[in-house]
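Handout, section B. The chain below has 397 residues.
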Amino acid sequence: MNFKQTLLAFFGSLLFLPQISKSQSKDEQYLIVGTYTRPNTKNPSEGIYIYKFNTNTGEFSAVSKATGIKNPSFLTVSPNQKFVYAVTETSDGSVTAYSFDKKLGNLTKLNTQSAGGADPCHISIDKTGKWILVGNYSGGNLSILPVEADGSLGKATQTINHEGKGPNTGRQEKPHVHSVNIAPNNRDIFVPDLGIDKIMTYSLDAKNGKLLEGKPAFTKVADGSGPRHFTVHPNGKFAYVIQELSSTVTAFNYASGKLTPFQTITTLAKDFRDKNKSFCADIHISPDGKFLYGSNRFVDAGNKNGIFAPNNTTDTIVMYSIDQKTGKLTYIGNESVLGKIPRNFMITPNGKFVLVANQETDNITIFKRDAKTGKLSPTGKQIDVPVPVCLKMVSVE
């Protein structure tokens, strides 16, 4: 090969480098982990932890952490992925805004505003990126906060208080908002309230940042069921709520802001007998819309609050197939989470892995997901992080 041919070959090879980099960037995601910063634990958390996670191989590496915040249990990411918002789940609940450097994987605090209620436990941002909705568990209410041009938060423009109670005197003595969910149309807002056994519905005025009463104003679920987390099917026709106190999932037909229930199914195996010790937590649908998953937490039934007293029963992820025409769920099985108290979990954007945040065993377990059967299998990999609660992913630049 002469000099000219060598030079052409060299520069020709450079053309492939950007393509390799682009391919790698699609696989690489930042994993952002919200936690409880309990000072009295053996391995106390320092705040929000950030990792790089390869969604093709399941490999990961630590990147950074944001400290100086108490109990940033739940997080949401702006549509442009430039900002992250975290609740402070305490009696004087608040929401903190961060800018996110996608090149370095660092969070920089912008400001903090009141959540308008005690113990905020869930947070969402609308598709315009202009409005934050936060649900306050102990406050029994939800608030809407404006997002300023620089990503920081303004003071809440509206706080809505729920009323009522349920038959479970230990857990339903008053309203307990447990999640605030924005439908794909960015208008319908569904708010499961564990304390009153209702999914409250609102309509978002995204121009003025106001929540209007939905039509209907709520959807009633079974007494004592304790609705918690909620998800809408990718086709926009079905919706599902997981119920903490009854260990069930209820399926709905969804149209024009209205939920019509058509199925309730247990999250437990057929041979499971100790139902009073199960407290469901999270729920997600696979990206292809074919499978639904929920988390089961098994606790000491003698503990009044339950959720912080894990017992020896194996905590699991329940798996269902979804009938694409009817939305009906069919039970597949339960897979051990290899940890305790799976408060939150996530499916990677490509649907290849499921990551489970085990709150009481300080680990995030990584499972491979079979796209054909929906079943999960352990990879043998886990991320060691103190008291993980919420998992979000952001693409790497």
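Note. Residues 78 and 129 are 6 Å apart (CA to CA). Compare this with the example in section A.
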